[in-house]
Amino acid sequence: MHRTFFIETFGCQMNKGDSDLMRLSLEKAGFIEANTSEEAEICLFNTCSVRQHAEDRAVSRIESTKYGKGGRKKIVVIAGCAAQRIGDDIVKSGRADIAVGPYQSPMIGEIVKDYIENGFKCRSLFVSQNTEDFQERLNEGLINSREENPWHKWVTITHGCENFCTYCIVPYVRGKLISFPSERIIQFIKDLAAQGIMEITLLGQNVNQYGQDSGDIPFYKLLEKTAQVEGLEKINFLTSHPMDFSTEIVRVMADHPNISRGIHLPLQSGSDSVLKRMNRKYTMKSYMDIIEAINRTLPDYAISTDLIVGFPGETEDQFNETLDAVKKIRYDEAFMYAYSPRKGTPSFKLEEKLSRNEKIDRLNRLISLQREISLEKLKSRIDKTENAIAERISKKSSEEISGKTSLNHPVVFRGDAGDLGRVIPLRITEVRGSTLFGEKI
Ligand code: SAM
Ligand code: SF4
Ligand code: F3S
Prior knowledge:
Layout: E1 4-9, H1 13-28, E2 32-33, E3 42-47, H2 52-63, E4 75-80, H3 81-92, E5 98-100, H4 108-117, E6 123-125, H5 132-143, E7 152-156, E8 158-159, H6 170-174, E9 178-179, H7 182-194, E10 199-203, H8 219-227, E11 234-238, H9 247-255, E12 262-264, H10 272-277, H11 284-297, E13 302-309, H12 316-329, E14 333-338, H13 356-379, E15 385-393, E16 400-405, E17 410-414, E18 423-432, E19 435-440
Helix pairs in contact: 1-4, 1-5, 8-9, 9-11, 12-13
The chain binds S-adenosylmethionine (SAM), iron/sulfur cluster and FE3-S4 cluster.
Iron/sulfur cluster is lined by residues 161, 163-165, 168, 170-171, 205-206, 241.
């Protein structure tokens, strides 16, 4: 009875990593993964709270899941960031049976087992962040993670965030900054490389703050040590905060060609006044200084960003400053959002003057500008030579291979299974949609 489970994951890579831990823990406790949530007797929802829409989507999935075929009641678990915020209410109202926070992912198997064995008593369980044990299991989860790209692993280097950007819920649901010990991280990356992993992404809410809590080495040194691991072809890092992005990072990148030339540097807004109210702790000038340092040091790179429009009090002129910044910086890619008020964050108390439609209108104007720039930048790659890691046979044709270039653009080229897991030099020939096409040199 109640043996099969299914995990549905919302939100960012942090949650995907936690879902791997949940899967591992449930399998260890004797549960079996089902192919769909319809088939499963235990349905787990690893939720996101970053915008209201993300939370609503997860809650509506939870509400429609309680009963399976023939009206049989399922066990419903709300986990992750939204669980930390509203999980208790969801359990009390009977919409879920168990609520757990992000830091209980490695113990979920035992929790569900206990719930079944002790006669189905609804419960909410939240623990604060821990620690050593979590890191051990995290590594185990990563090794067993099922990623679309078999040559890549995400490596979490920090948990939590203490930056308290005024719009952001993450510090409240994920807790304070915890850096995992650098020696363990490097050893783990060496083990991954020895197993044939070619590419990793160092992961944290602000990787540039690595070590500030624990007195460990600074981020640029961790990056340098990672780049020196034998066999690693590509190292990415996510997310960088402009307030901590040092010139040392740029220097380490220049010294190590195996560090990805795809840089993600969230700007959020092009207006100093809005940035100040967002508590981002940098200005357009200091952001542009970083861009100039990158321009001076790296001959070729791609840059992406996150942008929020319609922050409370954002005037039309301030929004235009964001458009101007986008025109000037010319991002290869941008993740763009309409501001979503999150209860419990400082900006939630600020009065919003814009209607939902006005925010969406600004968002659409920004998206259409960025689309043009993205396409122009992709087209500028035509006739260039790029090295790409061949990841998998293309979904569209068995004679095509898909992968990513060192600037992190998706690329497709004619090839065969023998190319997989190798670095292939390509000449870029055309752009279709947001994908580059190339031919082997
Ligand atoms: N730690 C990263 C950073 O500082 O850039 C990413 C944090 S968040 C998971 C990803 C993005 O969601 C943010 O960069 C921001 O653009 C967006 N975001 C966060 N809170 C938001 C909110 N309340 N409304 C709209 N977008 C939001
Ligand atoms: Fe949120 Fe800011 Fe932390 Fe990013 S740095 S997770 S936006 S508080
Ligand atoms: Fe990620 Fe959403 Fe939590 S973006 S950290 S899953 S609030």
